[in-house]
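tool_call: predict_structure(chain=1)
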Amino acid sequence: MKLRLFVILVLSIVVLTATPVIAGPFLFDSGLADGRMAMASRPETAPGTEIEAADDFILPFKTIINHGTFVGLIPLGVPLTSIDSVDVEIYRVFPLDSVNPPSGMAPTRVNSPSDDALDSRASGSNLNFSASILNASFTASNSVLNGINKIPNQTTGGEGPRTGQEVLVNVNFSTPFTLDPDHYFFVPQVHLTTGDFFWLSAARPIVGAGTTPFAPDLQAWIRNSNLDPDWLRVGTDIAGGTTPPTFNGAFTLDGTQTPEPGTLALFACGSALLYFRTRKRLL
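tool_result:
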């Protein structure tokens, strides 16, 4: 009987240690800005049309996200205080939260963000932000601001180099995002009192020390209010070319990863089954 109890104890420990029943830290990092593309991103309240630039990340477990960063450009000579509001939106992958079939204003919606945001945070209510200068002068080889057009005029090649101050924007979510396991898009928007903010690209696929590679790593998308609810691929649709470039956005997210309810249920069922089988044998 003692031997049987010992075996049961060992099996229980194996099951317990193989099951993620304790919450742990979560970190996603797409890598450093690579200087290839600068994507305009501004909220609806800014002068001109709203622009949303999006890049994806994957959550394997239910996750509470309470902080993030992203890297972009503000105009040369403009103080950091010109950043007067920041919004962050989370989208799922089309066709979730969308009308399907889509409106047909873009070449494709496969692997694009949804029509509508799943959740959002805004400074002044449930988001606090700070910014710091990483580089007093940084040039991206290409940019997208005004050339976000419906088909057949989507391929503009981009709007050329963009130079500005490279800034790191920190965002703290006083109301954290609580997200289930899924594939998501991160959409940061910045309003400046002078000029436009441009989110800088990162390498695709994700590589480098400290980054978080995953598959499938989707490319960055962008839209303005005239294209809404559709989206364009920044590289494939707008930059174009014989072999179009593709981009990620430079950003990080961190918080707490929690066990999936299904994982806990499986563990509970397994433990119960093990108990009843053992009890029957020992009687």
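agent: The chain is about 15% helix and 40% strand. Proceeding to next step.
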